[in-house]
Amino acid sequence: MINSQRLKRFFFELVQIDSHSRDEKKVAEYLQDKLERLGAVITMDDTAEKIGGNCGNLLARISGPLEGKVEPLLFCSHMDTVVPGEGVKPVEDDGVIRSSGDTILGSDDKSGIAAILEMLHVLKENDLPFGALEILFTVAEEVGLLGARNFDTSVLKSKRGYFLDSEYVSKISVGAPAAYRMRYEIFGHEAHAGLAPEQGISAIQVAAKAINNMPMGRIDSETTANIGVIEGGTATNIVTKQVILRGEARSHNDKKLEEQVAAMRKAIQDAVDSSWIELDGKRIQAHFEEATKREYISFRIPESSLSYQLPQKAGKAIGLEMEPEISGGGSDANIFNEKGIESLIIGTGMQAVHTVKEHISFKDMENCANLLINMIQLHGKA
């Protein structure tokens, strides 16, 4: 039922439009043109002003012949990509689409956008029965889910949402972890590294000691942690006065998450407590400042829910053995679940995302588009 060449054209056109986070305007313009041709009513919110971007979240409403008879459904993908995502040149080899090798591909999340576009075209050109659809394309997902955070969900009529932002088409993400982001600023004492190193406290050394004693990586089956950014130092001949560490912790278990955050903080505290010198009869002590923020809450949707049963049954009907999975990452679905919209994540086939080795099987994209169409048809019979 899908038009494979059209689906591929959508995807190739989308990935060649530059759209780093906060710079999604050209993608939004592309989508607005396509959606208006389908008769959608389109609005854009004021998120751009709030996050310093050039584009807000794009919401399209499409009425179907079953509107008012079946509940409306929300489908969502994000428009932004990570760096390096400018000048993408997609190439296809034996059914697999990749970038030319010096950029990401952008299948995260433009494969989801392409699948949604194809779904809408198939519904319209085949006069298939469907209810009201709300299609949301968010901004700045890759830099803290900023588009979803600033979107006013009270404008939606849908109570259930499907977010196309994962790997395997045969998997339905029914859960995702909560997360904290942390920023630690460690202060030592500056001195000349060659003339009087003993008169300094190296903030780099304090940070290294803290990291060495910090539980990181996969803590257990539910919890992970990482220090991903280290900034500091001005010259090789100066004992470094200041270092900034940025990290995160995630867990499906709130108690474990709080314990992990506390353990990371303790490692910093212990390192600075043990780092001091005496200079001119005075004790000079290392110290630190901390900024810790809860990024999003965890969610878990039961397999008995109608939200899960719809893609599970729709996939099975077209030969996909759909299985539930628990994701290790956060997405816009975390925010929407927190705001009261029961939301699951559906895969599109994207692989090795956020790397220059990113790729996607076109067959998976076809399966994803077919899954969406069958979900809507099945929902119309409910």
From TrEMBL:
Gene3D superfamilies: 3.30.70.360, Zn peptidases. Keywords: Hydrolase, Metal-binding, Metalloprotease, Protease, Zinc. One of its GO terms (biological process) is proteolysis. InterPro entries: ArgE/DapE_CS (IPR001261), Bact_exopeptidase_dim_dom (IPR036264), PepT-like (IPR010162), Peptidase_M20 (IPR002933), Peptidase_M20_dimer (IPR011650), Peptidase_M42 (IPR008007). Binds 2 divalent metal cations per subunit. It holds the Pfam family M20_dimer. Zn(2+) binds at H354. Residues 182-271 form the Peptidase M20 dimerisation domain. NCBIfam families: PepT-like. Belongs to the peptidase M42 family. This is Peptidase M20.
